[in-house]
Amino acid sequence: MIDVLAAGPVDLLATRSYYAGTFLLLGIGAYVVIASPNLVKKVIGMNIFQTGIFLFFIASAYVEGAQSPIVGPKAVGPFVSPLPHVLILTAIVVGVSLTAVALGLIVRIYNEYGTLEADVLQEVRTDD
Amino acid sequence: MTDLPPFLVALPLVASVVVLFAGLARSETGWPIATLAGLAQLGLAATLAYRVFTAGPISYVVGGYEAFYGIELVIDGLSASVVVLIAAVSLGVLAYARTAGPRGNPFYATYLLLVGGLTGVAVTGDVFNMYVFIEISGLTAYALVASGDTGRSAVAALKYLIVGTVGASLYLLGVGYAYIGTGTLNMADLSAMLAEVGYQSTLVQTAFAFIAIGLFIKTAVFPLHTWQPEAYAGSPDSVSGFISALVSTTFAYALIRISLSVFTPDFFAAVDLAQTLLIVGAVVSIVAGSLLAVSQTEIKRMLAYSSVSQFGLVLAGLAVLNQTAMIGATVHLLGHAVMKGGLFLAAGVIATATGAREVHEYEGLSERMPYAAGVFAVLAFSMVGVPPTVGFVGKWYIAVGAVEAQLWPLAAIILASTLLTLAYFARLVERMYFREPAAADDHVEGESAEPQPDAVVADGGRPSLGMYAAVLVAAALAVTLGAAVVPFAELLEPTLDLLLS
């Protein structure tokens, strides 16, 4: 890792493009969550944010030229690390349930106030 | 070696499913089943706590996969205390929720799921497993906040969900950094291997920063508390009592666990910035939380901001990193749960009987509801830290710990926090006892002209025996637990020696 850092920023980006992608996704996700007034878009932003983390884990498991980690009689190493895949599978399930709950809440909010915009919602709610 | 630890998590989870299916056959079966499960859980927790305090920490390897590959459950003195607290508080809130609602089996199923998730956070010895339990607790907490039937609770729950998910995701990112640096997720292995990687490594420091910030959000440390006041104020009374007592508490425990078991005090000794992060979080939370609490007009929002400030104190106890302060942090963590849960439930009792949810509506309350006002005042003074209550003892230990560590500014802030807490509770107590009810009848009519969506939640009826009992027990515990702190501290010492070595 040290020699990569010494190689300069351009090489760093070229060899570790996954990490650049990760932080791009994290940034975009966080921006959408904060800046978009639309509740559904906020949830989409939250999903993008989580996707960045998924990419981060999966990229960390990658080994240059390695096989997929299915061990059998013909399998020859080296293998890609299977553990981050399992972790992220769990995290994806968590993410899906979160999205489901969030969308359920948004439906309720829409039925109650008739809007999906956070700023309109603020006004409607200060009225009552 | 004992086989009990996994049942701590499995029992509430299974009971939750049972409640859900029993609801298909017969409604109104949720409460009895949940209560049975709660009693069994308390028995289990007490048994394990007894073993831990007499025979030392218990560790259990789930499914026979040895640690490093498998998931380990570890119960030491600290986690045992939190597990007992979770079991006890959840039973108390059940007594309250029976008549106060929300009713229906789905509510109790979610409730038990939350108990299981929180217990999981407390007993797990694996950082990724902890993430899963954090998300289980998070999801169920969002659902519980949304269980109020007003639009307000749905909006509060959505805000809680988005902010909470970002917090949990940051925690996961931190875990990812630690995993890439070491290749393990087991807490004991991690602490050894992080030391090998070197505490000056950017990777290790970034891992700590992400995990700490993620858990700051979950614990509601200022300025990352934004989800918390609405979540507490927008949810039904039983839920705000339950969540305020347990959810932030368990996440603060998680922060303590990760800081001491995974990163260890050596990390803080090597990296000044990490300790500074904790101290700054603590100080800002204590001061800003109190000031915001003073400026609130709604009781439940005031209590919520008070939590922000009290968790600042717990964080201060952790940041000092010595035995005395850690005893204080643990005592205040547990004591705050009892007191704050009690205060929210007491506010619920008062709101059920009188509809009063605003600070000014508490005027002359001692004449209308002498007992409820009395209990509320006892809990409030305990929170301020009047001896011999548990609130006093916790703050005392934290302050003494800060003085021992010669962190004078922090010690000054901790002592000042008592005055700040007094500032917002004195305002209420003064209104309850020394003011006439403001022109009772026309005032009430003036109020009802603008309908309060939350006041509708109250049945308008009389608070039940169970509601009073839950609040009374909380107040009694707040007063008497203070005397139990010295023996408790002795029990806790071996655990803390291990954690702080």
TrEMBL record, chain A:
Residue ranges of the TM segments: 18-36, 43-63, 83-107
Give the way it sits in the membrane. Multi-pass membrane protein
Top-rank taxon of the source lineage equals: Archaea
Which is a Gene Ontology cellular component entry for this protein?
membrane
Q: Which UniProt keywords apply?
A: Membrane, Transmembrane, Transmembrane helix
Pfam families attached here? Oxidored_q2
Matching entries from InterPro entries are given as:
CPA3_antiporter_subunitC (IPR050601), NUOK/Mnh_C1-like (IPR039428)
Compartments reported by the entry: Membrane
Q: What is the protein's name according to its record?
A: Multisubunit sodium/proton antiporter, MrpC subunit
UniProtKB/TrEMBL annotation, chain B:
Principal localization reads: membrane
GO molecular function, one example?
Answer: NADH dehydrogenase (ubiquinone) activity
Q: Where in the cell is it found?
A: Cell membrane
Q: Does the record's keyword annotation contain Iron?
A: no
What are its GO biological-process terms? ATP synthesis coupled electron transport
Any matching Pfam family: Proton_antipo_M
Organism superkingdom: Archaea
Give the membrane topology, semicolon-separated if more than one: Multi-pass membrane protein
How is this protein annotated for GO cellular component?
plasma membrane
Q: Any transmembrane segments, and where? A: 6-24, 31-53, 73-95, 107-124, 130-148, 160-179, 199-217, 238-256, 276-295, 302-321, 333-356, 368-387, 407-426, 468-489
Going by the UniProt record, its keywords in alphabetical order are:
Cell membrane, Membrane, Transmembrane, Transmembrane helix
Keyword Nucleotide-binding (UniProt): no
Q: Where is the NADH:quinone oxidoreductase/Mrp antiporter transmembrane domain?
A: 125-421
PANTHER family with a match to the protein in the record: NA(+)_H(+) ANTIPORTER SUBUNIT D1, NADH DEHYDROGENASE
Protein name per the record: Multisubunit sodium/proton antiporter, MrpD subunit
This protein's species is: Halorientalis regularis
